[in-house]
Structure formats: structure tokens, C-alpha cells
Design goal:
By secondary structure, this protein is mainly beta. It is built from 1 helix and 9 strands. Strands 1, 2, 3, 4, 5, 6, 7, 8 and 9 form a 9-stranded mixed β-sheet that branches.
Length: 240
């Protein structure tokens, strides 16, 4: 899969962020508040109410350094840009999504360098390409129906990430507050005015409601999973 993101910041305000913590299997939106003239990031867990419109027309891929943060990205389908110098650059993606009202209701930026997340977004993109032919001009409403445990390393260096199992629930008209913006290629390294993704939730276990859906990646492909009973379905007018 090829993904990409525009690094031109001449447009003014930056979008707020939503993130998926692959080490905990949880979604959070990152709200920014001004406290005595200083901006602070406040993660808000939205795992159990996560539904969002995914704008695959905005997706870009390339190289990301979340420690700055900085991005070298190109639009979907373009050749991957050369890897920048430095040890902290990783392949990743960035795109726009609109959260359901229960999760916040606004348009946000979603990006990641975690392989488990990239694979999930790539798999979903294949489903998007199949569905968009019958839903021209529309966008998919996406839910997480479970998580898949992915173990890497061995012995004391073993680590577990949780790949989100994403599903297209339905298709909706493009929300008015998320107009079509065709990304343009850029080779600039542009720091973003936002904090790096939080990793403080690593000690939090994946959602208990989805415990039965956590499986080892080495096992045969899991059967389709259903959303937890306490995860509300998106209302017809949830995305405007």
C-alpha cells in the first residue's frame, strides 16, 4: 500500500489529533488547551465509542519522526520519498478522519508509524477501493470490531502490539466540515505544532470487552468479529 501526507503548513491552523496506541489497543483524541498562555495536550480515551469517517482521499505516506515531530510525505500512489538522515525516522502515514459525535464529533488528523496500525489501515484501504466503486463521492464510516495481538522479538525482548480490526459499517456523503482536499507532493521536512503521540497508556490492557477477540498473529486468520455490545452504532446524522 502507498500512502502520503502533505507537509505544506501554509494553510494556517493545524488539525487536532486522534491516535491509536498499538501497545494498548486503545483510541484517544488529543485535546489541546491553553493554560496560562501555554498549550497542553490532554488525551481522552474514546475506545468504546470510536466511529469515524475515513477520508482516504487525503491519505499520504512516507517518513515520520514523531519526536520533533516532522514529516516527509507524498500523496497516495506517488513513489516513496528518500529516507531522511537520522535514526528516528520511520515509515508511516497521515490522513483526516471525522469522529462520531460520541467520540468528539470533529475533524482530526490520524497518523502512525506502528506496523500493526499501518497494516490495519492498508487492509481497510483494500476494502475501501472495492466499496467506493458502488458509492462514488461518498466516504466510509469505520468502526473497530476487535484487536489482534502481534508479538515480535523473543525472550526478554518480546513485545506485543495490538492490530485494530477495522470494518466499514456504511457509506455517507462527505461531511460539510471535511471538504475534499487533494494532497500535493512535498519533500519538505516540516515540524508540526503538536506533541508526539502519548505512550503513557502502554500499561493499560486492551479493552476488556474485546478480550475474547485478542488472538496471536501466528495463528490462522480469525473469524469475523462483532463489535462489543456497549459500542454504540453511528447514527445516520452523526457525521453531518
Amino acid at each position: 500500500m502507498a500512502l502520503g501526507i502533505n507537509t505544506d503548513t501554509a494553510g494556517g491552523d493545524f488539525l487536532p489529533r486522534v491516535q491509536y496506541d498499538a501497545r494498548a489497543g486503545r483510541w484517544s483524541r488529543v485535546d489541546r488547551t491553553n493554560v496560562n498562555g501555554s498549550w497542553e495536550s490532554n488525551p481522552v480515551d474514546i475506545t468504546d465509542v470510536f466511529n469515524a469517517v475515513f477520508d482516504y482521499a487525503s491519505i499520504m505516506t512516507g517518513w515520520i519522526d514523531f519526536t520533533q515531530p516532522a514529516f516527509v510525505l507524498v500523496p497516495l500512489g506517488h513513489p516513496k520519498p528518500p529516507e531522511p538522515q537520522g535514526e528516528k525516522w520511520k515509515e508511516g502515514f497521515r490522513m483526516r478522519i471525522k469522529l462520531a459525535k460520541a467520540a468528539g464529533g470533529d475533524v482530526r488528523e490520524f497518523g502512525s508509524t506502528a506496523k500493526a496500525v499501518i497494516k490495519a489501515v492498508s487492509d481497510l484501504h483494500d476494502e475501501y477501493l472495492k466499496g467506493v466503486q458502488g458509492n462514488p463521492g461518498m466516504l466510509p464510516v469505520v468502526a473497530m470490531t476487535g484487536v489482534l495481538a502481534v508479538k515480535t522479538g523473543s525472550g526478554q525482548t518480546t513485545s506485543t502490539n495490538y492490530k485494530p480490526v477495522l470494518r466499514i459499517e456504511r457509506w455517507v456523503n462527505r461531511p460539510a466540515d471535511m471538504p475534499l482536499v487533494v494532497p500535493t507532493q512535498s519533500s519538505n521536512v516540516t515540524p508540526m505544532r503538536m506533541a508526539p503521540p502519548s505512550t503513557s497508556s502502554a500499561a493499560v490492557p486492551p479493552p476488556q470487552q474485546r478480550a475474547a477477540q485478542v488472538q496471536q498473529a501466528a495463528q490462522p486468520a480469525p473469524a469475523a468479529t462483532s463489535a462489543p455490545a456497549n459500542t454504540p452504532a453511528a447514527a445516520e446524522n452523526d457525521f453531518g
